[in-house]
Amino acid sequence: MLIGLFSGVFLIWIGYIACTKGILSLISSFWITWEPVNNEKLGKSVGFLFIILGFLAILTAIFTIWFGAVVGKISAILALIDAMMIFIVIGLDQIGR
Known about the structure:
Blueprint lengths: L1 H20 L17 H29 L1 H26 L3
Helix pairs in contact: 1-2, 2-3
């Protein structure tokens, strides 16, 4: 349970950094090969999705106590959808939307 809570807080922290400082603070190692078109808009979108992922991790850690593996399966599906949304947002930024 503590691992889920700590990972959730960590993901929320990453999302907060992306929302406040922009996405370049997270992807500074890739600046040679890729640069976002709109740093502020992409930072807010990806940051918000990371915050959702963090809350999902915390809720999964809490509800697994009562409902067991069913919550883990549902949470895994939702986390995959959230990860796909992050890649879609980055792709939309690259085409200028």
